Amino acid sequence: MTVERRSAPLGRSRRPTIKDVAEAAGVSRSTVSRALTGRGYAASDVRERVLRAAAELGYVPDVMARTLKQQVSRSVGVLVSDLRNPFYAELAAGASREARERGYTMVLADTSLSAQAEAEAAEALVALRVAGVVVTPNSSAVSTYLASHGIPVVEVDRQFAAGSTDGVVVGNRVGARTATAHLVGLGHRRIALFIDETDWTTGYERYQGYLEALNAGDIKVDPGLVVSSGWDVADSRRRALDMLRGPDRPTAVFAANNVLAEGVWRAIGELGLRVPGDISLVAFDDAPWMSMVSPTVSAVSQDTFNLGATAVRRLGERIERPESDSVTTVLNVRLIERESTAQPPAV
Amino acid sequence: MTVERRSAPLGRSRRPTIKDVAEAAGVSRSTVSRALTGRGYAASDVRERVLRAAAELGYVPDVMARTLKQQVSRSVGVLVSDLRNPFYAELAAGASREARERGYTMVLADTSLSAQAEAEAAEALVALRVAGVVVTPNSSAVSTYLASHGIPVVEVDRQFAAGSTDGVVVGNRVGARTATAHLVGLGHRRIALFIDETDWTTGYERYQGYLEALNAGDIKVDPGLVVSSGWDVADSRRRALDMLRGPDRPTAVFAANNVLAEGVWRAIGELGLRVPGDISLVAFDDAPWMSMVSPTVSAVSQDTFNLGATAVRRLGERIERPESDSVTTVLNVRLIERESTAQPPAV
DNA sequence: ATCCCGTGTGGGAACGATGTCACAGCCTCA
DNA sequence: TGAGGCTGTGACATCGTTCCCACACGGGAT
Q1: In chain A, what residues touch B304 (CB-CB under 8 Å)?
Q2: Which of B13, B108, B170, B262 has its CA 20 to 30 A from that of B279?
Q3: How far apart are CA B133 and CA B161, in angstroms?
Q4: Which residue of A has its CA nearest to B318?
Q5: Per-residue pLDDT tens for A209-250?
Q6: Which of A37, A56, A60 is the best residue to mutate to test the B interface, defined by the most B CB atoms within 10 Å of its own CB?
């Protein structure tokens, strides 16, 4: 790391306040407020003068003062698990755009899957008096805490407080069932499931979808084929190596999210297995790499950007009508069939 | 999109203020403030009582009021171009972690490469009285504007206001030179450069690095091999198809960022060219897919997470000592040699 | 006894914006 | 002419917090 030195400090001067604008325009603070916000009377020539004075001074109303007075801010909090995961990044991007379109400032925190960080972030949001919060929750703690402070919450991707807070999720069960049924339809009977955990709604629903498809195909569930892997690629890769090196390996794998799919993909590559000749692979959550590798990977695609945008939209509605019944919005998913799935190898 | 209905509104009650805590503890507001902030005297038994009362009430100090009074907030703004690009997502993740560690709240906006959105975001940050801003700038406008409001700025990834504001960048020139020299060293003489634009410091430096390596190898620059592509994958892919279908195609391509590399990669795949047999590829900016595809793609890797973290750290220092000279920090990059680069095909 | 100092505590004025309220003009209509 | 209705403006209290200042109390030195 190299450091070069350059010059130049910068002069600091007091930021203009509404009072400065008032003096410059020769009117009172009240009049400036009315002219700028458009609430209340202001003669057109006066309004003109005020606007010009404000522009000349580069006046920007102080959100702190305004919020303090009005007791309601124009910012929303967004809490995501891990920005480095493209899923959450895209979700945040969607939230960001929708927030901007609705005139909200977005306060974003990456909770890094740590309960500690999540709690701190939640408290910071309460302190900021945000108008509402969108969260990809790890427990019901955040929703409960925020609700106790009267802050509207929308849970996105997964739900812990369904029934008492709004939620925006995707059709996890249907998606998982479709993906698994696709494999069954191709003739697979030994289909492994890689999943992170089944306590959350996402994992639970995907697991159920997997089971449903097997049942529908009259396939007995083999618990040895259901791998409850950890969070990261490394762990998933290790578990996949173990399983695929075994004697009685599956002919197909359904990976319940993009991280697990990456681990499985790497393991397959390392073992020199051919896809889909030796083994078929289908993933939940279509990550960019899946359409770039060879063979391309079939995946259940969720519109993640839209997921984030929808959550913020729902939050906006909730803020406007706090007393309405809570709603769970389910976005549809679709299976994209690519090259990684085919008939099982002849025995 | 399906919608289910669920029940339950929630009781709203006034948020506890410092006054409520004071009454509960039987002391004055001043004493509560001293007890909680630790500034000024407070007898230990009184402090105890106050802390307990605050905890019981679930009191969270109002950041708005505090900021209004103190005229300095504990939040920083982060402006990035496009969260959907893993580069910016990772940068934001780094910024997020560093901000949290330093006790700052992060206000993040995705400016979507639109000057309009950027200007709006900047104004929102001024209104929020953020302590400082980290930005991946598109012009010098933001830095200038924020500086005029006395808000410290750190430019990250690229610089438009070098000399007057701090910057955190990577060794673009060295990285590009190394990557190109790697190709030259393998025997390539027709090396194409895909680059977005050369007006920004990133593009300019990478271009210069490319030229330097060619010069060092006594290779005459062929302007026809320098492609100034647009922003997105689709555009880059199109330009790559054009070039690689041509009669006199290059034996190697250096793509100056991950988006351009993706476009080139897709084009190569569509044309059925073999990497590195027919053509070598090296990219600036190591994206996840580059180590997953086959063959894996050689790339100049920058520690993007660290880039974001460093920028926030630098911002923190600047906030503490506003008058010190501005500094440009250059993070080192390194070339990761993978499978996509080899000797040119025998003629 | 008086003064002074250290230790605690409370009163009250900010910070910047909003919005209610009162009121000053002016016009219209009875 | 006086009542009443508009239009337009300014004074002022308020939001929740901080922090300067005044002051009360007790003890030690004069």
Answers
A1: none
A2: B170
A3: 14
A4: A9
A5: 999 999 999 999 999 999 998 888 999 999 999 999 988 899
A6: A60
Nucleotide nearest to A31 (CA to C1'): D9
Closest protein CA to C1' of nucleotide C9, residue: B31
Tokens of B231: 């922003």
Is the distance between the Cβ of A225 and the closest atom of strand D smaller than 7 Å? no
Per-residue pLDDT reduced to its tens digit, A3-36: 433 333 333 457 899 999 999 999 999 999 999 9
Residues 41-80 of chain B in contact with strand D via CB under 7 angstroms: 59, 61-62, 65-66, 68-70
Percent of chain A with pLDDT over 70: 96
Q: What is the sign of the dihedral through the CA atoms of B35, B38, B42 and B46?
A: positive
Instruction: Mark yes or no for CB contact A332/B1 under 8 Å.
Output: yes
Give the count of alpha carbons within 13 A of A63, CB side only.
21
* Residue B4 confidence class, pLDDT cut points 50, 70, 90: very low
Kindly give, in sequence order, each residue whose CB lies less than 8 Å from that of residue A39, ignoring residues fewer than 6 positions away: A33
Reported as a pLDDT band with limits 50, 70 and 90, residue B13 is: low
Secondary structure of B80-135 in HEC code, one letter for each residue: ECCCCCHHHHHHHHHHHHHHHHCCCEEEEEECCCCHHHHHHHHHHHHHCCCCEEEE
Instruction: Answer yes or no: is pLDDT of B8 > 60.
Output: no
Task: Give the end-to-end CA distance of chain B in Å, rounded to a whole number.
Answer: 57
- Asked if A96's CB is within 8 angstroms of B109's CB, the reply is yes
Tell me the chain A residues in contact with residue B108 when contact means C-beta distances shorter than 8 Å: 92, 96, 106-108
**Which residues of chain A have a pLDDT value below 50?**
1-12
